[in-house]
Amino acid sequence: MRSTRLPSWIERLAGLDDPRGPASVFLLDERELVLAHFVRQNGPTPELQAVRRRELPADTFQEGALGGPLREPAQFHDVVAELQQAADTATGTQVTAAALVLPDRWLRLTFAELEDVPRSPQHRQEALRFKLRKQVPFRVEELRVRGARTGNGGGASTRFLIAFGVERVLAQIEDSFRRAGIHIGMVTNASLGAVNGIRQVHDVGGAFLLVLAHRDGYSLLAHTEEGPALYRYKNFDPALPPSVASRLAVRELRLTRSFIEERGLFGAAADLPEHVLMLAAEACRDTWRERLEEALGLPARVLDDNTTSGGGSEAGDLELDRALPMLGASLAVRT
Q1: Residues spanned by the domain of 170
Q2: pLDDT one-digit tens code per residue, 6-47
Q3: I need a labelling partner for 87 at 20 to 30 A (CA). Which of 96, 149, 172, 236 fits?
Q4: Chain Cα centroid distance, residue 270
């Protein structure tokens, strides 16, 4: 059985500290906590052996632009422990190590270039934090910041993909898993997880655009031959009429297309890549497909539930917009 490795940029960004990586993956958002257990059978793609999920009370998390802290950490810990016990029973093995997939809203991405890259990891982090202060409207001293080299910058500079989230929020979540005896070896977001799942399952190489769409917004990640090159996260007021939200979405997507063309992200011969991929819940797929095609002028390939997300007896029990990011995170497993 061959080993499946994460691309080097995501491995560095994730900060893996367990050489075996996780076989179990948790996905957490405001609505629910999901645990998927993947195993390797006869091929390079892990199979989904078990899925367990628990709905969360509506007020589990406080409000926050990057996700809010837990209101009652002890109650969330009980949910984690209950889900772990259910998964242990289903798989016959104890879950002690896992990856964690968070919403893009909680774990954002951006890019920065450094002309002189410090050799010391601590000094490199400080340099990236300094760059981040100029880009985001958040208190950087309250953020957890991780960076990984991805491609070349302009001239002699080095380009970094930066992930950031609120330290207090991430620490609270990790502590709940730690109290349940679960080591979170990797924290990633849905976009990065989905990119890795797409590259593995769908054999999409080279350049593509990936749009993760939901009712009130979207994430867009442009992936070139060298790795991630552009990321956009947009969220709209859920109270907006659908027609207004559509106009805003199309306008933002057109601005992104213009930026891609002006910067020549995909080379002088191509304005946009051949593949425009969309991942969304079934309820909003048609709406977002129309928005993408109007804004980008290209047909969007909709990744739907007929698209494989890895085999397994319970593969049909998990929606694709959740299964694909979790599958991508599970590929950190090395056997």
Answers
A1: 1-202+308-335
A2: 444 444 454 434 434 347 999 999 999 999 998 876 666 778
A3: 172
A4: 26
